[in-house]
Amino acid sequence: MKLAFSTLGVPGLPISDVVRLAATHGYHGVELRTHPEEPVHTGLDLTARADVAAEFKTAGVEILGLAGYARVAAPGDDEPVIAEIHGLLDLARDLGAPFIRVFPGAGKDQSPEEGDATAARRLGTAAEYAADLGVRILLETHDSHRTGADAIRVLGPVGHRQVGSLWDVMHTWLGGEQPSATYAALSPFLGYVQVKDIASPDDTTPLPLGAGVLPLTECVDLLSREGWDGWLCWEYEKRWYESAAPLEDLLGAGREHLSRLLNESA
């Protein structure tokens, strides 16, 4: 498996510094949080996009994916949501990223059936455009669709190879789902896996990998047993928890922890 980290852990950091951190600490790739407050967002012109791609290529670091914020199950018209997905897909193509991340984001006033149908319709519509660009749309286990069982209610009806899943191990755990059940549900769709650690269900402040309660060992053992050889991406949520320790000081130990889990599971 390849290792990456998300720029959610280094909010606002210039791309040159992000690339340096990845190369220095032995990460194969980076997931880029894609938002107007970050260096990478859909408003970049073609020159800026080419510059970002070149910095990563020169350093030999891959852009794993773009972590966007489109909410595919949200109430409202389809057109703005599909346009947002198309913008992320265009940016991913220009940067050479294989994946974009979207959220479910169903509204509290929607029935589960309505949220599922809305998400499946929008993802199915966007899938053909994604296929033309060679980029895959990944629905993260998050918010209204926290578990693998929730996600496949959307992914199954879409049934398109360009639409898959992003397994966030915290959300499936918080949803009470065992890693074996999550993998069974998501394995036909799985794009990559986000790992992290927290103190408890009531305190989701990010911790160094291995310092909390999330079943990282079990997840890595399971993925190794199943012969899955994709990406593990450390999503350290520093952007939302200003008091958390700086990710820059933790990256080396985090890579060593993941490497140790991979070696022990081999």
Which key phrases capture this entry?
alpha/beta, 266 residues, 9 helices, 8-stranded parallel barrel, 43% helix, single chain, globular
Give the gist of this structure.
With 266 residues, the protein is α/β, with parallel strands linked by helices.
Count the DSSP helices: 9
Low-confidence stretches: none
Strand pairing plus helix content: what structural class?
A: alpha/beta
Assembly annotation = single chain
State Rg.
Answer: 17 Å
Task: Report the mean per-residue pLDDT as an integer.
Answer: 97
Task: Please give the order of strands in the largest beta sheet.
Answer: 1-2-3-4-5-6-7-8
Q: How far do the termini sit from each other?
A: 11 Å
What percent strand?
Answer: 15-25%
Please write the string of helix (H) and strand (E) elements: EHEHEHEHEHEHHEHEH
The gross shape turns out to be globular
The tally of strands reads: 8
The portion of residues assigned to helices is 40-55%
Largest beta sheet, briefly?
8 strands, parallel, barrel
Secondary-structure map with pairings?
Elements: E1 2-6, H1 15-25, E2 29-33, H2 46-59, E3 62-71, H3 78-95, E4 99-103, H4 112-133, E5 136-140, H5 148-158, E6 163-168, H6 169-174, H7 179-186, E7 190-195, H8 216-225, E8 231-234, H9 251-265
Parallel strand pairs: 1-2, 1-8, 2-3, 3-4, 4-5, 5-6, 6-7, 7-8
Helix pairs in contact: 1-2, 3-4, 4-5, 5-7, 8-9
